[in-house]
Amino acid sequence: xxxxxxxxxxxxxxxxxxxxxxxxxxxxxxxxxxxxxxxxxxxxxxxxxxxxxxxxxxxxxxxxxxxxxxxxxxxxxxxxxxxxxxxxxxxxxxxxxxxxxxxxxxxxxxxxxxxxxxxxxxxxxxxxxxxxxxxxxxxxxxxxxxxxxxxxxxxxxxxxxxxxxxxxxxxxxxxxxxxxxxxxxxxxxxxxxxxxxxxxxxxxxxxxxxxxxxxxxxxxxxxxxxxxxxxxxxxxxxxxxxxxxxxxxxxxxxxxxxxxxxxxxxxxxxxxxxxxxxxxxxxxxxxxxxxxxxxxxxxxxxxxxxxxxxxxxxxxxxxxxxxxxxxxxxxxxxxxxxxxxxxxxxxxxxxxxxxxxxxxxxxxxxxxxxxxxxxxxxxxxxxxxxxxxxxxxxxxxxxxxxxxxxxxxxxxxxxxxxxxxxxxxxxxxxxxxxxxxxxxxxxxxxxxxxxxxxxxxxxxxxxxxxxxxxxxxxxxxxxxxxxxxxxxxxxxxxx
Length: 495
What we know:
The chain has helices at residues 22-35, 51-63, 79-88, 112-125, 140-161, 183-187, 197-206, 213-224, 234-251, 267-272, 277-284, 296-309, 324-335, 368-374, 438-447, 463-472, and strands at 10-15, 41-43, 68-73, 93-98, 137-138, 163-168, 191-195, 257-262, 290-291, 313-320, 344-349, 363-366, 385-391, 395-404, 410-419, 429-434, 454-458, 477-480. The protein is an alpha/beta fold.
């Protein structure tokens, strides 16, 4: 159950320019509330015509414990009071306007189409943020749908502004790509707490013989099933899980939500006695992402995806190409010519993907690469055990990332696709992905713009919500997998 994300409670405030009938805004607001399917929309009874009305309305929605607002222009609307709502309310505000058609065109015309222009102009003049949908003018039914689409965006914005990312250790050697300036975190309101691996180990030792360990072990055994885990490892992994959960609770301070970015190799397994991947997957399934290799922006990306999709996510290496024989034997037989070979790739990590997103053959195993590196050649795996491995189940996906570049500028990418129902024939937590025009996207976005090898994966098509969230957070560069008819600026037109 996801407990680490906000519960959005919306309020709707209607505004009215005093030279238009106030009944237009009031009745149109009621029509929206009637058309909205859900009990999470509070109707503010105060229709705002002036600044004093604005103060009363904001106070009313605060008393109703709203944390996101819909400001509704039922007619032209008062430019100053309506924009000051966003200034005085501590939370994301969406601005929408009424379409005509529910009254006569003499006394029943509201001109909100025009009013939205002045509203957006005034928001810009006051340096205020307002969320404005793609086409913000609509009927009651259409605006009710806009509000539904606003909820995932509002949840992400509220979550980010109340998030603390907790890190342990510096990035591993030769994983420079996971390092990025933390300046971008502060610009969007995220706090960060950086710690040593020794801090984590001291806390881990303090949790030895914790009375809660047996219950967690039992839960792990039930989750995985007989023969799918190492019984002798469970107590250590349960101890570590409790260490992280307690650290999150004791260190979130003034923040409501947490995410981790931890160093997981090479020292971790030899000191703690196991790989942390399975524990990381369990926390992610509760809405607490634990990004590998101290990938701070990976953790942030995961958290935003959890808020937007209201589901667990994962973080994977954009790892390897798909061999021609797998493409010929399986992909073309199932998917025809939907994907070219270079539209496919394998996403992999050691074993941090939540169990609920894996195929039935998943199991806790050992990390093959770390076993080669850290344990004696030819020996049985020991402290390199603890990964959750298997193919990730077929699903719609969105591959995305929010990143801060070396100049401290936030940028992002989003690409929708799917995990193919094709065996990978490989190790780790892994899947074959199909994304249209991935080859071009790989070259002209991921390589060209210097993105790191980690990408976040949401298990649904949520690109439109991620795009709106990144836009609201002020990200100027939001790249996507452009169709062939729309070349990238760096794409050679003669090839």
